[in-house]
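Our platform keeps sequence and structure together, in a single record for each protein. Nothing more is needed to write down the fold, since each code stands for a local backbone conformation. An entry from our holdings is shown next, in its original layout:
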Amino acid sequence: MKIILTAALLVLAGAPACAARLERGPYLENMAKDMVTVRFRADAATPAWLSFGAAPDCERFLTTVPAAKEQRIPLFGLMPDTTHCYRLYLPADQSTGVYKAFEGRFTTFRDEDKPWFSFLAFGDSGSGSPEQMQLAARMDKYNPDFVLHMGDMVESGLDADADAQYFGPYAGLQARAPFFQALGNHDYGAGLRTGEGSGFLKANYAPFHSVPLTGLPPHYYFFDVANARFFVLDTNAFFGAKFAPGLEPGSKQYKWLDHFLGKTEKTWKFVVIHEPLYSTGAHGIIEAEVKALEPLFLKHKVDMVFQGHDHNYERTMPVKEGVPDEAGGIIYVTLGGGGSTLYIQRRNEDWSEKFLPTYHFAYLEVREKALNMSVYNKDGELLDTLAVQK
């Protein structure tokens, strides 16, 4: 039965002069084939009403949340591969009514019987630079199923800077496509290597983001879409982050990764990390990370690894144990040119196929056993392409 806002919640046209207002969002996270989490921040603690349904029936269902400034509304029982519309209502002060603060749409993930999807991927964007804003405007023209971020979302890591450097630039995308983020070293704050980093993520990141409960939120998790599984890892312990979970053999995160990489029967296996395994950029390679993770990736036949940290674009050949290997190697793609100051190439390696010190993002499409990647700069010019056929 269709649920509507009754006369007790008289809907007013536009935002009244005295009313609760959105400060952040709404933004979508933690999507699956049958659920999504809608998040937003109001300018003061306030109740809210969210109506939703399969488009165009935006008020098929209604959920009410109690007064709070930071709101997290999980929507369960959704239909897969379905475009839903949603409306967010906030109260109008000095009246008995509410007003529509936002209206948007999203499409739930497909199941394995429809093995195709698209996504945007980029990283190291937290700067507020003009180049970041240009890239954000370019990406806003796309309608991907989801977005991958390789970390360093906010330069200081502070939530006080997050609106200017993260939520603001991607507001349009975030309201219609879920973001899945890997933590970067900057997201741990300036004190990542000292005791000052204790509680930093708990105060500045975890309260404002929702990730799947498939690992140890917000550090590492996996999510499924169509015929693929994505593993999002926290590699910052290799960079000295004192309070990041370990990823060396025998650690909890390592055992989790080994188990779930081996358990999935998905056609595609992707890994998302911040610190790169293979890179010729300024930061380069952390040998302990390569020693720990590459054997695991090879053992479980990971198809591609998406990386950040180095502020450049780089794509490797299929590489195995430091040597190009078309038959058994893995392709590593560094997408660290999201807006922060660019890096130059520090050395040459046989396995490095393409290196560009430029601002960029990638758009990828997967259809059954075929993957196509296109990389663009801030002016919309095509920089690189990749086709993979399994």
Notes: The chain has two domains: 7-107, 116-389. The longest helix spans residues 287-299. The helical segments are 130-139, 162-167, 171-174, 200-204, 252-263, 287-299. The domain at 116-389 is CATH 3.60.21.10 (Purple Acid Phosphatase; chain A, domain 2).
